Amino acid sequence: MLLSSLVAQASPLSEQQVKQLQGLVSQLNPIQQAWVSGYLAASAQLAGQSVAVAPSAVTAPAATLTVLYGSQTGNAKHVAEDLGKAASGKGFTVKVQDLAEYKAANLKNERFLVIVTSTYGEGEPPENAISFYNFLFSKKAPQLPELRYAVLGLGDTSYEFFCKTAQDFDQRLAELGGKAIIARADLDVDYGTAAANWQQQLITTLEPEFAQAPAATADVISWPGVSQTAAAQSSYSKQQPFSAELYTNQKITGRDSSKDVRHIEISLAGSGLRYQPGDALGVYFSNDPQLVKELLLLTGIAANTPVLLGTERLTISDALTEQLELTQSYPAFVDKYAKASGSAALQALAADKTALRSYLSERQIIDVVREHPALISAQQLVDALRKQQPRLYSIASSQAEVEDEVHLTVGVVRYEAYGKPHLGGASGFLAERLAEGGSIKVFVETNNNFRLPENDDTPVIMIGPGTGIAPFRAFLQERDARAASGKNWLFFGNPHFTQDFLYQLELQNYLKQGLLTRLDVAFSRDTAEKVYVQHKLLKHGAEVWQWLEQGAHLYICGDGARMAKDVHQALLTIVQQQGGKDEKAAQQYLDQLRIAKRYQKDVY
């Protein structure tokens, strides 16, 4: 219809060209048509041609669904990408973007906005969402009377501030005049089905409006599809992990160390999996058979009893060993187990959230059942437990050096409590139950918010006590392979020099060859007064400031609850003292480093 009218208005196309174009356009959906339109317009501009468009062909911009994600471990990113693909499949024009990449000034122009976000620590936004979060709660945030929005929160009910970032976004967008498309959903770690249902509800609600919206024009940026990083990798993913081989399991702490840290080497041969320094490896694991046996004994359930896990039928023993969470405890288990067992004590505890959180902070699932054994059905036990979530470990190697391998630095969770030894799920599996040559299911989780500078001349400062050394081992291997000329400064800390100096020989060799410009260590238990990495930073504050002023990139990896906050405070002090700034200006300085991707964190 439109092409026929163009011919009638003295189109520059011949009749044959119009017929060919009509044949192509008839095979394209609206999204593809918009892309072709933009491509042709751009081509004409590059050729120096001015493009005259007939008035009848000009339409208003199409409605665009903007999907932003704040993600610490990758879950929110994947949910956002799934939502984008589903909406695109319905003909929506969709833009999916990392909150760290989103220009907050564009918020006033949005009409349909979705935010998918996790929550970190004590109710804080994930690292890549901090700048947007601060903007939204500042005086600079615009009024948004035309905005229609939706918020999806991912979290863990084990934590006190469950999905608080999502709640904050929801409340603030409403305060600024936005109208919710559908109600916010706050989802626990086993979020798959609930997220899919929320996604479907959102698309169904928006579909009539997007169906009525005008077709896309060349000015609209269409849905980009899957992430280019993922597309460049193999087909293996969190949903379809690769069955890899364990090459090496080597303890790298001393015999008398209070810590058990393992250097793990895994073969990725045949997988096609690629990773970059800064990425993480997702690890699935099998639960301890002795733990499964004891749990069944305490609940009076036969190991071969059939159960349903979703739509899958299997034995209770297999479900507990391979698919359900038995180490990390959480409030929902206590609530469901209390009802199934009829335990009045547990029911009372479940009703007091503060007391329950304190109770669970030191207990695994088995501890709860040991204290309150009860005869329940196999299906009741399965329904009380949640699906096992893979553990993410910062990758400790560069493929430029190790090729089809991936290395990890794993701190084994091991402690005595209530008269019994306790092991972490994944760390115990890697350290004790998986033999070298054994099979382990893994996938690569990209982390584009923790990357080396593109310019190899740029200096970097790395702060990684304990197992936080892992990504910096990868950084150093990568810079060595690239013959990067930029200076490298590492701060490392642990309790004892003789027992806990992880990768000591490698680091000392890097110092000798000049790759590692400076190495400052803090062994906190070797001195009368405990010295940590933040103290070393303050001691060398003048040099740290000089490096930052010379353009250095700053990285922190490790414990987010205490270490990362202490290091951040030390950096604030350095900026104040060395830069002559007050507290507010110092914070703004670090915020600008973060925005420029010169201050990055990988904390847990």
TrEMBL record:
Cofactor: FMN; FAD
InterPro entries hit by this protein: CysJ, CysJ-like_FAD-binding, FAD-bd_FR_type, Flavdoxin-like, Flavodoxin/NO_synth, Flavoprot_Pyr_Nucl_cyt_Rdtase, Flavoprotein-like_sf, FNR_nucleotide-bd
Sequence positions that bind FMN: 71-76, 118-121, 154-163
Residues that bind NADP(+): S524, R525, K530, V531, Y532, V533, Q534, D566
Every FAD-binding FR-type domain range: 239-453
Keyword terms of this UniProt record: Amino-acid biosynthesis, Cysteine biosynthesis, Electron transport, FAD, Flavoprotein, FMN, NADP, Oxidoreductase, Transport
Cofactor binding description: Binds 1 FMN per subunit. Binds 1 FAD per subunit.
An example Gene Ontology CC term for this record: cytosol
Entry binding sites for FAD: T327, R391, L392, Y393, S394, T409, V410, G411, Y415, G424, G425, A426, S427, Y604
Gene3D superfamilies the UniProt entry points to: 3.40.50.360, NADPH-cytochrome p450 Reductase, Chain A, domain 3, Nucleotide-binding domain of ferredoxin-NADP reductase (FNR) module, Translation factors
Catalytic reaction list: hydrogen sulfide + 3 NADP(+) + 3 H2O = sulfite + 3 NADPH + 4 H(+)
Gene Ontology MF terms: flavin adenine dinucleotide binding; FMN binding; sulfite reductase (NADPH) activity
Pathway annotation from the record: Sulfur metabolism; hydrogen sulfide biosynthesis; hydrogen sulfide from sulfite (NADPH route): step 1/1
GO process terms (BP): cysteine biosynthetic process; hydrogen sulfide biosynthetic process
Residue stretches making up the Flavodoxin-like domain: 65-203
Complex formation: Alpha(8)-beta(8). The alpha component is a flavoprotein, the beta component is a hemoprotein.
Function: Component of the sulfite reductase complex that catalyzes the 6-electron reduction of sulfite to sulfide. This is one of several activities required for the biosynthesis of L-cysteine from sulfate. The flavoprotein component catalyzes the electron flow from NADPH -> FAD -> FMN to the hemoprotein component.
Protein name as it appears in the record: Sulfite reductase [NADPH] flavoprotein alpha-component
Organism: Alishewanella jeotgali KCTC 22429
